[in-house]
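Please check the following.

. . .
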Amino acid sequence: MSGGFTSAHLIYLVQSIGWTLVLSVLAFALGGIGGFCVMLARISPRVWLSRAALVYIEAIQGIPLLILLFIVYFGLSVYGYQVPALVAAGLALMVYSSAYLGDIWRGCIEAMPKPQWEASECLSLTRWQTLRLVIIPQAMRLALPPTVGFLVQLIKMTSLASVIGFVELTRAGQIINNSIFQPFLIFGLVGAFYFVLCYPLSRWSQSMENKLNVSNR
């Protein structure tokens, strides 16, 4: 062992939180765009498009995120594409997020009462106008709690990016522990930092869900 835990180690851990947040925001933003497209495909009246989206969702949800990370990071290098760890982790998490967010949002869209669609047809609104002006604004209220809940899971899943060498919070803890070997202290701190990041979001999601349940009674 070379010394004990110092303030420099603590600063290194705190700085790595920034990269965890960068990866989380990148994956959530890109996954949200992809998820919106998946949701539109899933509720499409075109049967082939809806089924293709369903196959995509079931395929991605059936593959561990770790395998997706290996496919993007190591698989692309076989074809001569040297992908940086941040880009590889962002792409894998984007694909993973798009499947789950698309499925969450599809459920919220389909939960809207059928008379909403029928009333829009009576007003001669197109399908896209109905979605944009009537259905999606109402579905957003339903979608917000599970979306925030998924974001909490996504923040924790960024820890898997450590296996491809991306230095986020978990990887920073591994690096420090390899040098001073104080696993209970270091990974206890890492866990505490994840708790600080995730707990407020979890409480926010629970609060929104409780308000939604009360208003629906």
Helices lie at 7-42, 47-61, 65-78, 85-110, 114-122, 127-157, 169-180, 183-216. The two ends are 60 Å apart (CA to CA).
